[in-house]
């Protein structure tokens, strides 16, 4: 049974995972300190990570395993809002986006799919979380679907009780402002079995596995 | 630069990783309790692991990442000793050994290579650790080489200072007897940077990255 999984999702001590305003210079807004103080290369497996292989990097490497598609919010794809006026924009990642699978970009504004040579494709979809997940599972061809963020997107899927697994990472810094992962999520923990582990870097890794559906 | 890596290497509190006598019924001798009390499926990635995805399983999944060949001792391949009298023996693993890469089996007794449909092949070699590693690196085609055990084989490569990385797992049980990973390895830790992390299961994971060569 294909799962919906969240991976390497960095959260500050005060609950923020992104800044409030995304610009071309600041892809995650003012929250970039979430990644700058620690090794935030959250999309690489051990096979491409530099030495040394640390706990953080080993856990990081689960990001792509068994994943056949991603769903992301429009803010993760680019800083634009509203109708697409610049169709030359093909995401932040250049000619080889790291996903290597189909990616569903949630947006109210239609656009033709984009295809890259390395297996990545972007499919722009205006849909509820339920319908987006069904669409992505179809693209994933039996593998799991990663819910790639940002935090508002993860929250939508949590609220709809569609998340089966989350690897969250507490970064021991405060941001003071930003987009919270936890807004409106009181009691979300009741649906999960939660394990946590500290790393020598100061990061705290959480494994949330859903135990109760409903 | 291709590395030599040890993964998911289970060690009891008293330092044993295998029993003294390997038989057809007991592939790791009397040390099977190392695996029976905990989830010892040490060769599966997240993509094939059952739910839930725990810390233990996430770390387990680094086993095959970026690895292009394995080196194992003869005792890991089978219980026989001396000249090959039963060439029908093709290892413990049936028609689909989990390695999916070339595997170098260290033995003083020649035998023709074995090939399996899933990409696994076994190559029987009488060589020093240095020469075996050079041979395996060639087979690995630029990827890393896993030193697959048993403990005597890992010790040989440690003594020759050929190990770049070890993921060891302390299992909180005592065995009282067996083959020790640590015999003759006094001060081995001086060549490594070591990080450790506890898991909710009671296992303790260690990441040894080599920092000093010589």
TrEMBL record, chains A, B:
Alphabetized Pfam families for the sequence: RibD_C
Coiled coil (residue ranges): none
InterPro entries found in the cross-reference section: DHFR-like_dom_sf, RibDG_C, Riboflavin_Biosynth_HTPR
Domain of life the protein comes from: Bacteria
Residue stretches making up the Bacterial bifunctional deaminase-reductase C-terminal domain: 8-192
Protein name per its UniProtKB record: Dihydrofolate reductase family protein
Organism: Streptomyces yatensis
């Amino acid at each position: 049974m294909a799962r919906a999984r969240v991976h390497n999702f960095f959260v500050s001590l005060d609950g923020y995972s992104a800044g409030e305003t995304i610009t071309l210079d600041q892809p995650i807004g003012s929250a970039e300190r979430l990644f700058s103080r620690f090794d935030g290369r959250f999309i690489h497996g051990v096979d491409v990570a530099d030495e040394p292989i640390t706990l953080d990097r080993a856990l990081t490497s689960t990001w792509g395993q068994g994943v056949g598609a991603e769903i992301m919010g429009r803010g993760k794809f680019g800083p634009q809002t509203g109708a697409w006026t610049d169709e030359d924009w093909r995401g932040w990642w250049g000619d080889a986006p790291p996903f290597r699978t189909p990616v569903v970009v949630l947006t109210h504004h239609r656009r033709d799919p984009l295809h890259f040579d390395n297996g990545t494709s972007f499919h722009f979809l205006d849909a509820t979380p339920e319908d987006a997940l069904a669409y992505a599972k179809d693209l994933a061809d039996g593998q799991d679907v990663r819910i790639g963020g940002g935090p508002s997107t993860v929250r939508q899927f949590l609220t709809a009780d569609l998340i089966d697994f989350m690897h969250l990472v507490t970064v021991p810094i405060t941001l003071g402002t930003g987009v919270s992962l936890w807004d409106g999520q009181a009691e979300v923990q009741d649906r999960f079995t939660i394990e946590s582990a500290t790393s020598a870097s100061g990061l705290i890794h959480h494994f949330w596995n859903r135990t109760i559906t409903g």
